[in-house]
Each structure stands twice: as structure tokens, then as C-alpha cells.
Design brief:
Arc Repressor Mutant, subunit A; 44% helix; 7 helices; 2 domains; 26% strand; alpha+beta
């Protein structure tokens, strides 16, 4: 979906890195290595996104660090677009539909760190969750979002990861 709007795969990967989780940050060489891209390609996109105000730049000890500009008026919109691009909105909707008393949905692993690796690790926290339904749901979600999804169920709130849904009133 996003590929038709933004033709630069490098730019999409950078947007995913910084807008899936506002806590993510990176520097030129680290991003080039992580994304297996040339430093020139990464530099070009970082400069364009910084000049447009989408990324904040901070220099410290001969290294420039980048992160999402959460004060930008389009931050929330870009974050929602990234969530849709990755299929996280579909995961939330399908889980809440028939999973039981869901308290938290947490993304773990690569995607929590902004790396679009193709395998989304999802932790579902709640009591009396419908474990049989999750097996059917995994196949349905994978078909819809074109990414592998690995689910883990537990009844204790998560200590790490990217929380994409929370409701402790259940």
C-alpha cells in the first residue's frame, strides 16, 4: 500500500524504523548496516526527512543521531500510516473481535525496534483468552497483511515491547 505512495524503499524503511515506536533512534552508519543499504542512500533520506521536519537531528561526539519528531503536526498521522502499512491495525481489530478479555497487545522483537523483517511477534495479555481461536486467527491475519505473525498468550502484563493496545478495565 505505502509503496504506491512512496517509491523509495529506503524512505519507507526509515519511516517504519522511527514511526512505529517514537523511542527508536539511530545514526547514519548504524541505519545503513541495519538496513543493508549504502550510507549515501540513508544520508539522502535522513536529510530529506529532517529538512521536512519529520525527524529530529542531534549531534553528540562526532555522531548525528535521528529520531521521530513527535511535535510535528503529522506525527500521529504518519504513525497511523506505518501501523496500517505493517497491518498492526488489522491485528488489533481481529484480536479484539473474539479473543476474550484482552488487556494488552504488545509487539515484540524486530518490529518493536522498527525493523520490517517479515515476522511480527505479538504478545496478547489477558485472562480467559480464546487459545483455539488464535490458531485460526494467525492464518487469517497472515493472509490479510502478507507477513508472518507469531502469537504468544500470557496473563501477566508485558515488561518490554511496543504496546499497541491497552485496556485493564476488563
Amino acid at each position: 500500500m505505502l509503496e504506491t505512495l512512496i517509491t523509495s524503499k529506503t524512505r519507507i524503511r526509515i519511516l517504519v524504523k522511527f514511526f512505529i515506536n517514537a523511542a527508536n533512534n539511530g545514526h547514519l552508519r548504524g541505519l545503513a548496516e541495519e538496513m543493508n543499504e549504502s550510507t549515501n542512500a540513508i544520508r539522502k533520506e535522513l536529510n530529506n526527512l529532517s529538512e521536512a521536519g519529520y525527524l529530529e537531528k542531534k549531534a553528540a561526539q562526532n555522531r548525528v543521531s535521528y529520531k521521530a519528531n513527535i511535535k510535528h503536526p503529522l506525527f500521529k498521522t504518519l504513525q497511523q500510516i506505518v501501523f496500517k502499512h505493517l497491518g498492526l491495525d488489522a491485528i488489533i481489530d481481529m484480536i479484539l473481535e473474539r479473543m476474550g478479555q484482552v488487556e494488552q497487545i504488545v509487539i515484540l522483537g524486530d518490529y518493536a525496534n522498527g525493523i520490517d523483517s517479515g515476522v511480527i511477534e505479538v504478545l496478547i495479555v489477558g485472562k480467559q483468552l480464546n487459545a483455539d481461536y488464535i490458531d485460526q486467527l494467525a492464518l487469517k491475519i497472515e493472509e490479510e497483511i502478507k507477513r508472518e505473525v507469531v502469537f504468544t498468550l500470557q496473563d501477566v502484563p508485558a515488561e518490554t515491547g511496543l504496546v499497541i493496545y491497552e485496556n485493564f478495565e476488563s
